[in-house]
Amino acid sequence: MRNFDFAPLYRSTVGFDQIASMMDRALTAETGQTSYPPYNIEKLEDDAYRVSIAVAGFTDADLSVEVRDRSLIVSARKADEDADKTYLHRGIATRAFERRFHLADHVVVTGATHADGMLHIEMQRQVPDALKPRQIQIASDARRIGKDVVDSTAVN
Hints:
Blueprint: H1 7-12, H2 17-27, E1 39-45, E2 48-54, E3 63-68, E4 71-76, E5 97-102, E6 107-115, E7 118-125, H3 152-155
Antiparallel strand pairs: 1-2, 2-7, 3-4, 4-5, 6-7
């Protein structure tokens, strides 16, 4: 695996420290990250997204959805109520987990629903009006001819 030093990027740029931090995080991420629980990320519209996580066996009280430092953190802790049960086969995983999703700029979580063993988290990109592109009107004013400019029809 290669190691990259982003220190020169921090010194020579202004405002790009988030990009360098994101690249640094991506390059140093654990490769053995678990796939539990499985999830989908859907694009519903141009600025609307949904993360769906399979959380079979968990109740609403066991689940936690939190947004902190531009990260969506979904975690679950199951109360140990199965201690008195004896299983011949246990194939339904209800172990504790924590799953993190890094949110892009201006993406906000608008809601979460839990039904039929699926946790759906709705997100919306809400770009402020000040950052949206806007059209500037160009005014044409014929009276703005300067004193030093000579009209060619008046001279000839």
